[in-house]
Design goal:
Elements: H1 2-31, E1 33-46, E2 51-53, E3 62-74, H2 75-80, E4 88-91, H3 103-128, E5 133-145, E6 158-162, E7 165-166, H4 170-179, E8 184-191, E9 194-201, E10 203-205, E11 208-210, E12 213-223, E13 227-229, H5 241-252, E14 262-265, E15 268-269, E16 275-276, H6 281-290, E17 295-299, H7 302-314, E18 319-323, H8 326-334
Parallel strand pairs: 3-14, 14-17, 17-18
Antiparallel strand pairs: 1-3, 1-4, 2-13, 5-6, 5-12, 6-7, 6-8, 8-9, 10-11, 15-16
Helix pairs in contact: 3-5, 6-7
Amino acid sequence: MLKKFYDKIKDFIKEEYKFILFLIVFVVICTWPVNYYIVIGGGISDISDRVVVEDGYSSDGSFNLSYVSELKGTTLSYLLSYVMPHWKKVSVDDYKYTTDEDYQDIEFRSELDLLYSNSNAIYYAYQLANQPCKVVKTDVYVIVKFSEYDNPIEVGDKLLKVNNIECSTLEEFQKEIQKVDGNKVNVTVLRNGKERNLDCKLYEEKGIKILGVGLQSVTTYDVDPEVKFQFEKNESGPSAGLITTLSIYDQLTKGDLTNGKLIAGTGTIEVDGSIGQIGEVEYKLLGAARGGAEVFLVPAGENYQDCKKMKKEENLDIKLIPVKNIEDAVERLKQL
């Protein structure tokens, strides 16, 4: 019985081997990876599950994160992006600061961007609400390593000391670097939970001594009432900064900043309180409209113009509000 089954399989392969080979080659070609991400649209998600202020005030409406969905590029998805409406190809190189960066470097920077964004959101929300907000510490991380500078520092390192002198802010690190006599310096970093002393070479650009790396600081605040962040592991990046800040502020203050509406939005919250531009903003607008949002907050300038064009082209039933900074966003919402 089993022999007959195997014989039939052999006969089928002999008769259809050309088709089988074609099918194998076709599948390999279609699934072959390319150096692109394919943006295929987006959606919204209520931020109240991710940002929780202790004993905070509730609202009848909601603040919602706007996000885009991405596919890892393959030959098939790349070709489909030319014919499918609202499919956009984005080069992986656009996420890189240097050509030799790997996926882990990009992921670390994106995760740190979320921490940086949440830190700024806390500061401005508590400041606007006149609530206590004190600096606990500031951590400084390496987010870019430029290949033209030869040093053992790696992306992800947390800087601790310069020539055995502890530094707690980015400004202090830069100040100590400028004090170094000569072109060699010892830098203490925390890498994978262990301290390491690295002998580094100093370079000079326009009269300023540098290590040849990009740095970013993240400040931790002691606040009352306490705020907790519960973002998912796959949620990262800085684009939720605006909505995060508004959600915290709304929970800290009486009244309903949402005015009972489903509000979506996007934009970074910068260290000066300004709302920064983000990529693929028109796809986030589409996702917000499809998700039933009544209002979409968008950074003023180029992002707003892109969204205005998309709204007109797609005849979207959603109110666009351009905002320049966090105070502007709060005032515009109060006027709804």
